[in-house]
Amino acid sequence: MNLVFAKLILVVAVFLDGFVGGMLPYWRRVDSDRSRFLEYGNAFAAGIFLALGLLFMLHDADGHFKQLFPEVDYPIAFALALVAFLVLMLIEHVLPSLREGKIVHAETGEGTDDFVTTGSPKFAPYMLLGALGVGSFIAGLALGAQPHIKGVLLIFLAIVAHKGSAGFALGVSMRRGGIARSWGRRLILLFALTTPTGVLVGMAATQLLTGHGEQIFIASSIALLSGVFLYVATLDILREQLAERTNHLARWSLLVTASSLMFILAIWL
pTM for this one? Predict the structure, then answer.
């Protein structure tokens, strides 16, 4: 299959995943069983993110930079991953605190304190949209820049495992912030389009750049994505998972199961 065509097909799937997930809280009431299913699904997704970020993305980016700059004794890939991690933390947790509010990125949307409860409640969805949008754009950028179908499928697997639940969290935040359905639909559409936009930018950049420039762009996008994956797995999903008072063993087991599957996959890839 043509690589460009494959990327475009996967982008459509990612868009639908994000949009439908984001609109669910507007379309129907969210019951506790559905929320619990999302919680366990996110625990499994966290294992995928951790393993992909460390075993595949960061490892590949580091190898690329060492080939490009063999004389440079500096962990460029790790530095870029840290930058992505810190920027997402700034957007999702530090900036909201400056407005005397508190945002907790709850994937399930349960509880009355999951999102802003003090300060400016209507500000919460926009900060959440910013954090999710930046991470989604970087993921799309790396997917679009990938020169091999293996890398494309791995990144797609991680994106689709989380995009719907991230959109769901955004939709819940919007409903609790009192955002009308018509305006909420526009914001969710914007969120759903961030990954496809990143893919198109990544594809265009690799067409415009040549030689070292193209390779640096590919390596940088992979390194930044590894930071996004590590952030989503830890400060996004696992922090919320561990805040729950029950079923820690089940959540941990799902995390280990997903990570183990990625360990096995790494043997063949």
Answer: 0.81
